[in-house]
């Protein structure tokens, strides 16, 4: 059910992104790069119902380019098709990714999702302002 995304999934992933977060100028181009890099997993039954992306780097805070020594597993876009939300698919993708790596995990989310991510063991590491909106940097050791 959860598998690495391929370029065949690109159209569906972009469609779901546009129907949910929709915060990129050129999601097609960006998701193509992410999928080619092997940094996107999808939940498929076999239709793609959701996706999660990640990246590994040494950044402590992507919003002030604060680099550290420790490698961090950054979870990025978690998106579930609106017609399939609330069925536990987002949680399945999140748990799958948490178990993939022993690196420290970080994730930037809207404040209204803090409690949701606390449910996976994340704590609030920092609150940053992005485009005049407060966002939480969540951390899981
Ligand atoms: C947030 C999201 C990924 C959750 O995935 P999902 O499959 O719908 O969630 P699950 O079924 O695993 O869990 C449902 C729980 O999430 C909570 N939840 C979902 N969206 C929420 C939101 N925007 N704010 C607060 N809680 C939310 C619900 O309260 C629900 O809790 P309950 O089971 O106690 O009722 C999904 O709703 C989504 O794609 N939203 C739009 C994109 C987005 O905001 N992504 C997160 C970027 S930080």
Can you tell me about this structure?
The structure is a single chain. 26% of the residues lie in helices and 43% in strands. The protein is an alpha+beta fold and 141 residues long. It has a single domain, classed as Gcn5-related N-acetyltransferase (GNAT) (Aminopeptidase), CATH 3.40.630.30. It has a seven-stranded mixed beta sheet, with helices on both faces. Strand 2 and strand 3 (48-61) form a beta hairpin. The protein is globular. The structure holds coenzyme A (COA). Coenzyme A (COA) is lined by residues 20-21, 78-80, 85-91, 109-110, 112-113, 116.
Compile the SSE list and pairings:
Blueprint: E1 2-4, H1 10-19, H2 27-36, E2 40-44, E3 48-61, E4 66-80, H3 89-100, E5 104-110, H4 114-118, E6 123-130, E7 133-140
Parallel strand pairs: 4-5
Antiparallel strand pairs: 1-2, 2-3, 3-4, 5-7, 6-7
Helix pairs in contact: 1-2
The structure holds coenzyme A.
Coenzyme A binds next to strand 4, helix 3 and strand 5.
Summarize the structure.
The chain is of the alpha+beta class and 141 residues long. Helices cover 26% and strands 43% of the residues.
